[in-house]
Write a structure and sequence with these properties.
Helix content: under 10%
CATH class: Mainly Beta
Structural class: mainly beta
Strand order of the largest sheet: 1-2-3-6-7-8-9-10-11-12-13-14
Number of strands: 14
CATH architecture: Beta Barrel
């Protein structure tokens, strides 16, 4: 299904804390390198989405789609959230992510700054960072599991009190497995690297989703999201919601999340709209999967 950007489950309702040991970040980079190397041999470009496929978004769940945008297409995903934490109430939007297919199995995406407004209680307000990234689809892999690798960075363009200080790179691996009877499983592993933080430098985020297709156009999901900082307690969230495809290239969605411990928001309620525009520009097409280069 969808969502999440270089943000943790607690953003945009507060500044995300930092995560795990530096060695974990290095391990993630090693895993990414190995996956890229293996996939140049085994992946097939024809397995990646084309304009004949329905829209697949990175929202409304935190877990991003394991599929890229078709080459030559532009996809715009938007949403607005209402949330509460520690007696304060927030609204944030437009949570816009722009995704464009620049080659078969390869997309460029950017998270546009989102504005967080405190509507009641203590707390600040401001914009999040702009965050560009490359996403490469490494699928199918054995077992019919779709997998992608994402490398991105949140640039220090937003409010420090909202987004944190300095550039914040991340590596991410969303996956999905389609089962029988309209059921599906998906998840995502992310390492957020925050070099400018005085204590923990990394946050490890893990998600797991159970999804059910209820009609040809509608799906529902339940999702677990956990943020695990290096020097601190985790933040855990239970998220649920659904989506409806108005057309093969347009989608509306909603989600409702509740915090499972005191480090997570009390609740988050969100709605969104996404659309894909096909064949806007020519993209390089080949029979070999493209590998993002650093």
């Amino acid at each position: 299904m969808q969502k999440e950007k270089p943000r943790t489950i607690i953003a945009p309702t507060l500044v995300a804390s930092t995560r795990g040991p530096i060695s974990a970040g290095k391990l993630a980079m090693v895993l990414l390198t190995l996956l890229v190397h293996q996939s140049t041999i085994t992946a097939r470009a024809e397995s990646c989405p084309t304009i004949r496929d329905e829209i697949s978004t990175d929202r409304p769940d935190v877990t991003n789609s394991s599929l890229v945008v078709p080459a030559g297409s532009l996809q715009i995903e938007n949403g607005i959230n209402f949330s509460a934490r520690d007696g304060s109430h927030f609204v944030d939007g437009t949570n816009t992510r722009l995704r464009t297919g620049i080659a078969n199995c390869l997309e460029f995406l950017v998270d546009v700054p989102t504005f967080l407004a405190n509507v009641r209680g203590p707390g600040g307000a401001g914009f999040s960072d702009v965050a560009p990234a490359l996403k490469w689809q490494i699928s199918p892999i054995p077992g019919k599991v779709d997998l992608s690798a994402v490398v991105g960075v949140a640039l220090p363009t937003g409010s420090a009190g909202i987004a944190g200080r300095g550039a914040q790179p991340y590596v991410q691996f969303p996956w999905s497995w389609e089962l029988h009877g309209g059921w599906g499983l998906s998840g995502m592993f992310t390492e957020f690297i925050r070099p400018s933080q005085p204590t923990s430098k990394l946050i490890t985020e893990a998600t797991f989703v159970i999804e059910k297709k209820v009609t040809e156009r509608a799906s529902l999901f339940v999702e677990y999201v956990g943020d695990y900082p290096a020097n601190g307690s985790p933040a855990q969230l239970l998220n649920s919601g659904g989506l409806y495809r108005l057309t093969p290239t347009q989608q509306v969605d909603f989600h409702v999340a509740v915090g499972l411990n005191h480090n997570a928001p009390s609740y988050i309620v969100g709605v969104g709209y996404s659309a894909r525009f096909d064949e806007l520009f020519s993209a390089r097409r080949s029979s070999v999967s493209m590998v993002p280069r650093s």
